[in-house]
# Entry
Amino acid sequence: MEPAFLPDDAYRRRLLAVVRLALVPGVGSRTYHLLVARFGSPDDVFQAAEEDLAAVSGVGPRLIRGIRNPPTMEDASALLEECSRLGIDVIWEEHPRYPRLLREIPDPPPLLFVRGALAPEDELAIAIVGTRHASHYGLTMAERLAGGLARAGLTVISGLARGIDAAAHRGALAAGGRTVAVLGSGVDSVYPPEHANLAEDILQQGALVSEFPPRAAPHGGRFPQRNRVISGMSLGTIVVEAGEKSGALITARHAMEQNREVFAVPGRADQLQARGCNRLLRDGAALVETPEDVLQQLGPLVRPVKTGDAVVRKPVELTLNPVEQQILQALDDDPTPIDRLIDSTALSASQVLATLSVLEMRRLVRRVGGTMVQRL
# Structure
């Protein structure tokens, strides 16, 4: 169920409470949700007795002291004002713009800091990740896959890192599609610094996202943490090139734990950058060579997504030609007489029947009783 959106004053009060708890040192996303689940709200956490706090998994004396002396309302207000000044949107789980896919993972970030704009169609998203030390083959495949999937209508999500990540963002941008970069630092602190121009390009066709507040510096511990956000915002994760200890494999593991699809691009057996991908394939990841491989593998969406004039239920529908799309959009859950479909689309009977056969083979529709057809 979607969270209800609160009026401005009530929303700001709740948001300030979330910010205060999220800023307590040692309160990560898992601990935040355990505390709120136990006590009901951030304000209730601040009022909880020490013995009750100690009963929550992972809460020790140091964290209890932090909860007893949290950032003040003034501190939280100052952070929101700084974000407003920097053009950073602050959204939390009860906000309608909080990504629905991310809300479904076990430990979603309590807060997201966003530059640029997240859009409803970003629910149709795919992550593309890989090594920072990519080969020419890996960079080419990342750009080609990102471009093809972006042209089909998927948002490409990656981490703005050197190598495969940057190639994925550039491929989506070159195709005129949307792309989102998830950072391991504040969204005002682009890392690596040489990607500042790429980040500005991304802002024109997507967003920079982080769970870390402005001025948060990049450091090693934050990148594995942000990887669960990359996979969590996506229907599936494609690993293009990855060594045996690549951080991209952490993203793939998060995707598996989140019950999302995992794809891997095969590589040469004697190439170090290919060992992680080949291991994923051995362990059951879907092999991907073309954008169509990805679209075919992605299953039905939990809920339909409106993109342009179309309502998409399965990502493979993005590959349909205009006539196929027109006929599919004219159908709904109830069986529709084929004669009515011919009348409503103003297409010839032979064209409708031939197109229905194609859609049926692609398992997007089914015949009911010979004279009726139903969308799947």
Summary: The chain has a mean pLDDT of 92.
